[in-house]
Structure formats: structure tokens, C-alpha cells
Amino acid sequence: MVAAPRLAALVEQFLGGPLPVRLRAWDGSEAGPPDGPVIVVRHRRALRRLLFRPGELGLARAWVSGEIDVEGDLYEVLDRVTWLLGERPQVGTGRLLAAARDLLALSRAVPVPPPVPNEEVPRRSGPLHSLRRDRQAISHHYDVGNDFYELVLGPSMVYSCAVWSPETESLTDAQTAKLDLICRKLALRDGQRLLDVGCGWGSLVLHAARHYGVSAVGITLSEEQAAYARERVAKEGLEDRVEIRVQDYRETADGPYDAISSVGMAEHVGAARYREYATRLFGLLRPGGRLLNHQIARRPIPGREKSYRVDPFIDAYVFPDGELAPVGSTIGQLERVGFEVRDAESLREHYALTLRQWVRNLEENWAQAVRLTSPGRARVWRLYMAASALSFERGRIGVNQILAVRATESGASGLPLRPRAWTEQS
């Protein structure tokens, strides 16, 4: 029973210091500090995955397959081994070859495993961010069962960060506060037309129609989201004021709208298409209308601004073809097509709180989540949400609500002289 000490020595060689967590190997051996969480390597195949795909993707495949697990606090493990997720020190070629030989010896004659569970790998075809490929990417992430999303997201069925305060009592309350904040920023009022780009399960358009009297159109590429949203609209008797379409933003041409919201959708657009996205929304908005763009942003690393690459785990298992941009780049793109950006509000800490609640919902209903999807999909979600919560908490990524206007020819914006007037509910 020597696998864990050998594996621990290999890890410490990379770290240049002691192992940050305890290891338990498939042969029952253990190594590392006696206190704190434990990483359990259940099968030698996990090592073969690391040989085949070194770094984050190999680890993710082992996690999704159940060959690596955690006993104890998952957040603490992720925090302690951040280097395994892309921040480890640079290692020379000689040391890498030595590590590969050691991993090969530990894994013995176990065949190279397939890079799946098959059902968790997105099917992609066609040019990047083409209409067809974007539909495939959206379907992979969102068409996994509305019952599963109800379990994770809770009754609000809102899949973007909530807005919290010290007085907030529940996730539902925090999501309602976020929906209302968006409506106030857009200055919605009775009789206006609202377009919600990437409407999800319809929560925002329903809130806007119910409480602000607008006529709303929600568009999504997810068939399952659209079906669920339409049922909600019918149940509330709002068919005369809310329309749900399965439609791409590039296919929407029935403007002008008085206001446009895009909440958690622009991350799917991609850098190559972002100018087209901004131009399309500008053209759909009437002069004097407002855009609320709610979007996750990456923090650029000084000196490495041009070295950005899509996170391999997220791309392979979670959001195929998704891309993050710095908030400054997003503001610049919106301004280039004619928008006047009037406000940008960071909600970074709010997203961390939201993700932790989603993880809690998943963990408390784990058996049902596995039943509704698959063991692999449930493990994907647990890892991605927990790691994302830490990324928001540590400031590696952020999320921002950008309010922009299409000013009139006279330059009138329609905004109040006092900034942030929408923070006060009327």
C-alpha cells in the first residue's frame, strides 16, 4: 500500500513544498496532512487521464467519471489546490518527463480511458458561433431537463446572479430583487415594449409584465426553456402581453423596442461576433431607449492580456464555445456601435453568494439530481459552480450590469440627473 506516498511525492515535487491536502489512493494508502479535507483517487485511470490530458482537463475528466472524489469541504479543497486548476508554477521539460514516467508506473497497464462520460461531451459542428453551432452549444447546457434546473435554481428559475442585502432571507427574495433592479434601471412603464435576449425560463419578462405593465418578448435558443416559459405565461394569464420565441438575436427584426435586457447571455456571443451583437441590439432599440447588459467578465492579467484562452473544463463540459471579455472591452464595443454607456455596476460578490446557494441546493438533493440527469452531469455542475464561486470571491472573474442608452438626435438620454436613482424603490 504505497500508491498515495508515491503520488504525494510527485505532487510535492511540482509544488516545491508540502502537499496542501491529504491523499487517499485506490490501494487504501494515505499521505499528506492529517487534518482537513481528503482527495480520494479511486482508480488508476485517473492517472492515465492526467497523462493523456495534463492539467485541468485531465483532472476534470477524472472528477466527472468519479475516479477522483473529495471527502470534506469541496471549497477548501479547490482553494488549497488552485495550482492544479491552472496556476501551478512553470515546470521544466526534464521534470515533466520524470513526472510522466512516475505517473505511467503508478497507473501500470490500465488502458488509456475515453475522454468522456459520452453523454457529457457537447456535439459541435459548423463554424464557431454560427447559428447552427450556437444552437448546439445552448442545447447542451440548457436542455438537460427543467426539473433539474428547478432543483438547483429554486422557485425563481433565474439563472444569473441574484442581488443580496443583509436583510435578504432567501435566494428567491434575492432573485426578485435582481429582477426588479433591472426593471428600474430600464425605467419600464405601462405600455412599453421590452425585449429580453436570452430569456431563460421567462422570469424577467413575467416580472416586467406583471409589475410594470410592459408588453414583453423573450427569446431563447433552448426548446426546453421556451416550453417551460410558455407554460408559466399561460398559467399567469399573460399571453396577451408576453411572447416567448425560440429565436437567435440575429434573427430578431421586429423593433423598435423601448428597452432591451440581456442577462447572462452575452457570454455565449464570442469576441468575433460581439460587434454584430451590439449592432443588432442598437438597431432594435428606439432612440431614447435603454439597454441593460448583464455579463460575466474576466480579469485581465497584467502583461498577459493577449494570452487568454477559454477554460478547457468549462468549454468541454459546461458552456461550449463560451468566452469572457474584460468589462472595459465590453463597454468599448457597445460605444463603438453608438450606445452611450451611463452606468456600470459590479455584482461580483453577489454572484459568489448565489453560486454557493445553488451548490447547496444541488448537494441537499444529490440523489434526485443524479436521477434527473446522470452522475456525470451532476458532478460537472457541482464542480463548476463551486469553482466559479471561489473565482468570484477571489476576484478572478466578475459580473457587471452595464446600462446604456441609444440617445436621441438632440442628445437626450432620458436618465435622471442624480445617478443611481433606481436604487431607491418607488
TrEMBL record:
This is Class I SAM-dependent methyltransferase. InterPro entries: CFA/CMAS, CMAS, MeTfrase_dom, SAM-dependent_MTases_sf. Belongs to the CFA/CMAS family. GO terms for molecular function: methyltransferase activity. PANTHER family: CYCLOPROPANE-FATTY-ACYL-PHOSPHOLIPID SYNTHASE. SMART domains: PKS_MT. Keywords: Lipid metabolism, Methyltransferase, S-adenosyl-L-methionine, Transferase. GO terms for biological process: lipid biosynthetic process; methylation. Coiled coil: none annotated. It comes from Streptomyces hoynatensis. It comes from the Bacteria. Pfam families: CMAS. Signal peptide: none annotated. Residues 148-390 form the Polyketide synthase-like methyltransferase domain.
